[in-house]
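## retry 2 of 3
previous attempt timed out at serialization; input unchanged, resubmitting
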Amino acid sequence: MGQEIKRSKEYFEMASDSAKRETFVKSVVTFVTKNNFDGFHLHWGNPKSPEIDQDEAKAKLTLLLRELSTALHLVDKTLSLAIWSPLTAKIDKRFEI
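## retry succeeded, writing output
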């Protein structure tokens, strides 16, 4: 799944709301298992909305990744993450590594 720049605020809102995160995680697990995929690959860029606090975005992404990883591992599936290359220079600022 890729994060469209135009929809970054929507993805941030999903990652920020525990109920929406839970719905997203459940739908990913259902989709991956139903289609017999090995796992889920997430391509996450930096949220581009000026309304989004980057420190908060980093923390919410960490929550999302933890929940996704836990749920996928429970059904023997993997989670992988791609980081948009311009962000690698600021990886410590944008991601909790």
